[in-house]
């Protein structure tokens, strides 16, 4: 038997999944780490905590699997996009990993939007202007942290840092590079204008390679810690969004992948780069002749976590006392409320928003509250608000690539029957849930299999992806959603002029609190 590991470096954890040659899961580890949010708009991770999680996950899976020599053919990466780490001349981090969720560069994103340069860059990079991008993060560091900027020799992401530690070389795949907003999708190289705007030079960025590139010759210390031969190939892989499409077999024309994890996204594959005249969707590289067009949202499962921890603390305590999963209990409570939450609408913009409004100052809103509404209504409205927002991304995407022919859904939400049905009802289409809910890790593994010549084509993924659930729209439910979704859309647009005002007030208030604490 031959095996490959899909290594998925995510926002809150790294998932290590061992697959056999038939795509069946034979080992699994999920290793968590902290997200540091000490100040307004901050969202950072410790690179060493992530590296330790990777070593731990690999070693646990390898030890438990007890593979024979030669059975493990390779390891292949997926990685969250948009992270930035500043390294000094000795490759030591000067910063933590600044994640996609960090909004401190909002001023510089606004400047690029207002002066027209942002649209110029979007047309070349395929990345809408937003503080998530390393381009704007570097602008922020250059202006707000000049002492770090002056010491920085290399600007990298978390995957590049991990591979430098393991293999002693700085390489960046086209897919991760694409998401930096520093990469030109038409000439497949770092973009001169984008580098000039950010204030970086070519020699401060890693060498670019394709997503099938293989590392070999691991540092022996780490190979021994993991328990593998140092010459096992590690395939550099791609970014998590495109690989989620691959992992749920959404790479054929018209097949849409909807993902809800900590964040979320709606994506479809094209055979060439495509640009949206309204700059609402991204265009990211997956592999040769495979470009993923779509829109990411900041507010997926992280909103449900906020509901659990801030709104529903009594239910959380009850779940702990009953030895139940709190999310399962909250979902059961939400199921008791009819579709539409009795007219309660939630705009889920707790962490700003990316697609389709691309406004880092966006804020969450409950709209339509009455004395009759309960916490149960608020739970369901929050879940529905996440799906409403994904649907608005689908509307934008349809203008660029056409109407979807099929929807494949994945991510942690796929474990919830209520959420799956909600997706079918709001989108008014059948929703297929592949057997593997860890679609991103499977996508990484399949890309690795292709690089390692274990399969002939990425389209062979259809051999590995089964469907365990197909949810059909419920006419009673989508009748309610047809009335509420237009209100949601109008409301989100009507509030946009005020987002910046309230966000500015919040930042000033938080800074005043910081001064008082000092």
UniProtKB/TrEMBL annotation:
InterPro entries referenced in this protein's UniProt entry, alphabetically: ATPase_NBD (IPR043129), Carb_kinase_FGGY (IPR000577), Carb_kinase_FGGY_CS (IPR018483), FGGY_C (IPR018485), FGGY_Carb_Kinase (IPR050406), FGGY_N (IPR018484), Gluconate_kinase (IPR006002)
Signal peptide region: none
Transmembrane region(s): none
Alphabetized Gene3D superfamilies for the sequence: 3.30.420.40
Keyword Nucleotide-binding (UniProt): yes
The protein's Enzyme Commission number: 2.7.1.12
Keyword vocabulary terms for this entry: ATP-binding, Kinase, Nucleotide-binding, Transferase
Domain Carbohydrate kinase FGGY C-terminal intervals: 257-451
Domain Carbohydrate kinase FGGY N-terminal: 3-247
Keyword Transcription: no
One Gene Ontology term of the molecular function aspect: ATP binding
Annotated NCBIfam families: gntK_FGGY (TIGR01314)
PANTHER family, per database record: GLUCONOKINASE, SUGAR KINASE
Family: Belongs to the FGGY kinase family.
Designated name of the protein: Gluconokinase
């Amino acid at each position: 038997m031959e095996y490959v590991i899909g290594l998925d470096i995510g926002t809150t954890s790294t998932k290590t999944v061992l697959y056999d040659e038939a795509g069946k899961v034979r080992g699994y580890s999920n290793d968590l780490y902290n997200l540091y949010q000490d100040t307004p708009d901050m969202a950072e991770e410790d690179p060493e905590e992530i590296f330790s999680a990777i070593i731990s996950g690999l070693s646990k899976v390898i030890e438990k699997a007890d593979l024979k020599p030669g059975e493990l053919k390779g390891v292949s990466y997926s990685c969250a996009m948009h992270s930035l780490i500043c390294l000094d001349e000795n490759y030591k981090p000067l910063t933590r990993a600044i994640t996609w969720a960090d909004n401190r560069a909002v001023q510089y994103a606004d400047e690029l939007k207002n002066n027209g340069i942002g649209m110029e860059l979007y047309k070349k990079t395929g990345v809408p202007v937003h503080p998530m991008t390393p381009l704007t993060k570097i602008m922020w560091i250059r202006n707000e942290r000049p002492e770090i900027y002056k010491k920085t020799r290399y600007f990298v992401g978390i995957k590049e840092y991990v591979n430098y530690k393991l293999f002693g070389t700085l390489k960046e795949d086209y897919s991760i590079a694409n998401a930096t907003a520093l990469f030109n999708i038409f000439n497949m190289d770092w973009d001169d204008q984008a580098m000039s705007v950010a204030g970086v030079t070519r020699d401060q960025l890693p060498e670019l390679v394709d997503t099938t590139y293989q590392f070999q010759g691991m540092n022996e210390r780490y190979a021994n810690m993991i328990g593998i031969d140092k010459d096992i190939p590690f395939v550099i892989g791609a970014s998590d969004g495109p690989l989620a499409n691959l992992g749920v077999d959404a790479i054929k024309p018209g097949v849409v992948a909807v993902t809800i994890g900590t964040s979320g996204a709606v994506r479809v594959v094209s055979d060439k780069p495509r640009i949206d005249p309204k700059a609402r969707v991204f265009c990211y590289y997956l592999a040769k002749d495979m470009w993923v067009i779509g829109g990411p949202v900041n507010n997926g499962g992280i909103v449900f976590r906020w509901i659990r921890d801030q709104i529903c603390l009594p239910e959380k305590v009850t779940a702990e006392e009953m030895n139940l999963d709190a999310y399962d209990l909250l979902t059961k409570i939400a199921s008791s409320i009819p579709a539409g939450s009795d007219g309660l609408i939630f705009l889920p913009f707790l962490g700003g928003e990316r697609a389709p409004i691309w406004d880092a100052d966006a804020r969450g809103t409950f709209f339509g509250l009455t004395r009759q509404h309960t916490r149960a209504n608020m739970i369901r409205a929050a879940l529905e608000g996440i799906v409403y927002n994904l649907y608005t991304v689908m509307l934008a995407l349809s203008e660029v690539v056409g109407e979807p022919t099929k929807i494949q859904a994945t991510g942690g939400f796929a474990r919830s029957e209520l959420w799956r049905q909600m997706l079918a009802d709001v989108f008014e289409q059948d929703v297929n849930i592949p057997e593997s809910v860890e679609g991103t890790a499977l996508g990484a593994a399949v890309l690795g299999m292709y690089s390692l010549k274990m399969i002939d084509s990425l389209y062979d993924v259809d051999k590995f992806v089964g469907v365990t659930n197909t949810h059909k729209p419920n006419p009673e439910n989508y009748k309610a959603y047809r009335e509420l979704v237009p209100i949601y859309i109008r409301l989100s647009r009507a509030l946009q002029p005020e987002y910046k005002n309230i966000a500015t007030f919040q930042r000033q208030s938080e800074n005043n609190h910081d001064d008082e604490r000092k």
